[in-house]
Amino acid sequence: MTIKKTVISAAIAMGLISTSVFANNSGTIDFSGSVANGSCQIPANQMTKVVDLGEITTADINAATAGQSLKQQPLQFDVSLCPSNITNVAVQFDFTPDATNTQYITQTGDAEGVLFGITDANDTLVANAGQVGADAAVSGGAATVNAKIQAYRIGTDNAVGGSLASTATVTLISQ
C-alpha cells in the first residue's frame, strides 16, 4: 500500500505542478497602427473657377491654321496635406468631347471656328477622362500639377463671332 500511496501522491503532485506551469490559458496582445486621411487636398478656388481667355478676333482665327493654339491660360493645382502613403497625384479632366474634334471640349457658346482644349504643361492635349500628373512626386505631403486651357482654331471655314463657353469637371487622383 505504501507504494500505491506514493504513486498516487506523486501523480497528484505532478498534476498540481503541471497545472501551475500551464495555468496562463489567456493573455492580452496589444495592436497599434494609424489611419491616414485617405486623400490630398487642392484649394477650392483652384478646383472651381471661371477661366477667361479674353477676346479672340475673327481675323486672328481666320489667319490661324487648323489645330493652332490661339490663346492659353495656365491651370495650376497646388496639392497639399497628402498622407505619407501617397506618392503620386494627378488631376483628371472629364468633359463632353466635341462630336467632330473629340480631342477638344464641346463648345456651348455661339462662336464658330474655335474650341477649347486642355493640355499638360508641354502642350499635349488631354482626352476626355485624361489625367495630367504632378511635375514631381509628392514630397512633404505636397505636389504641383500644371496644365493649360487653350483655344484652338478648328477647321478652315471663316470664323463666326460670338461667345465661347465650355465646361470640364476636375478630380484629384492620388496613388
Layout of SSEs?
Blueprint: H1 2-21, H2 44-47, H3 58-63, E1 69-79, E2 89-94, E3 114-120, E4 130-133, E5 143-153, E6 169-174
Antiparallel strand pairs: 1-5, 2-4, 2-6, 3-5
Describe this structure in words.
The protein is α+β, with helices and mostly antiparallel strands. Helix content is 17%, strand content 26%. It has helices spanning 2-21, 44-47, 58-63, and strands at 69-79, 89-94, 114-120, 130-133, 143-153, 169-174. The strands form 2 sheets. A 3-stranded antiparallel beta sheet has the order 1-5-3. It has a 3-stranded antiparallel beta sheet with strand order 4-2-6, with no helix packed on it. The radius of gyration is 34 Å and the shape is elongated. It starts with a helix and ends with a strand. The relative contact order is 0.23.
Descriptive tags:
175 residues, alpha+beta, three-stranded antiparallel beta sheet, 3 helices
